[in-house]
Amino acid sequence: MEWIVPVILVVAIVVIAAGLYLLLARKALVHLNGRVDEEWENLCDQFSRRLELLPHLVELVKKYAPHEESVYISVMQAREQTAGAQTPLPAARTECSMQQAVRSLFEVAEAYPKLQASTKFLQLQSELRDMQDRVQAARRGYNVRVREFNSRLEAFPNTLFLRSLHYHRRDYFELDGTVLTADAPRVQF
């Protein structure tokens, strides 16, 4: 009977330690989940800023090349699709089409020296390049947080307990590297 008290104490310590671990692990996961959401909102903000810039750029190019209607339509369609994407997977798909549409817009602009010499065009092109850089930085930040979250979720013994709390892997924002342009094409005279 003397061994019952130490056994009960050891079991109580193990149960308390396990409960404390689960509580802290859940708290860390909730925190990381919130950070992923914050990074996603930041990425969406960068998308919105870029989307506000595109109509100005299209209108300016349209003044110099009014007959390139199909290019303008594809840019505006890509803009609408990007604006409608609410989660990483559809947003990544629309981002690739956005990159292609913007590239085609700049290819049209390259054929018009007066447009390339326009200070307004150069300013908008520079702003778009800055926006692209910000989108890429926000995308990297989001993916870092997703990797941290997914790693924490899949670490043992979290896999045994935390998934029962309805936490699931978060999706990365991954792009097809063959389509992605780091920035807008450079204007050379």
Automatic annotation (TrEMBL):
It comes from the Bacteria. The keyword Cell inner membrane does not apply. Keywords: Membrane, Transmembrane, Transmembrane helix. The keyword Transmembrane applies. It is found in: Membrane. The chain crosses the membrane at residues 6-25. SUPFAM superfamilies: LemA-like (SSF140478). Its main location: membrane. It is a single-pass membrane protein. GO terms for cellular component: membrane. Gene3D superfamilies: LemA-like domain. Belongs to the LemA family. This is LemA family protein.
